[in-house]
Amino acid sequence: MDDALTEPEIVALTADHMQAAAGIRRVALWQRLPWLPDVHTPEEEEQYWRMHLLPNCTILGAAMGNRLVGVIAYGDNWIEQLYVLPGFQGMGIGSSLLGCAKEEMNEIRLWTFKRNAGARSFYERHGFTAEEETDGADNEEREPDVLYHWRRLPELTLRLQPSGG
Length: 165
What we know:
single chain; GNAT_dom; GNAT family N-acetyltransferase; MshD_Acetyltransferase; Acyl_CoA_acyltransferase
């Protein structure tokens, strides 16, 4: 079996990738949460990625062959976006992308919608804990959400203490 076909390549994304990144978010989000209001056009979402996320975040993509199948945007102890195309979920792609962010930050916060059981379970499996829940009044979709938090545990150093006599 060829590992190149099963293991995604994690790559830094550029402005040329922002339309595809925004598209992954759109497809993944609306398939999981079809009841959410569609508050932005695809063009507005691409502009958000290009004008807000790209200059302020590290944006990585997971590529399988020549196809972008997952994206993450993070920085300043926040994950702003993390999405994997539905047909590629459950293959470790989200975990790989999240691992890149965890390598660079000692503490991470992120928001996810309360009804997004799949995302909540994913983050909890990766050591995140729910810190706050809202009624959604402060987000564009007016959908209740949850603030998650992860903190790197201090390295535990085992020291052998000489027994005193």
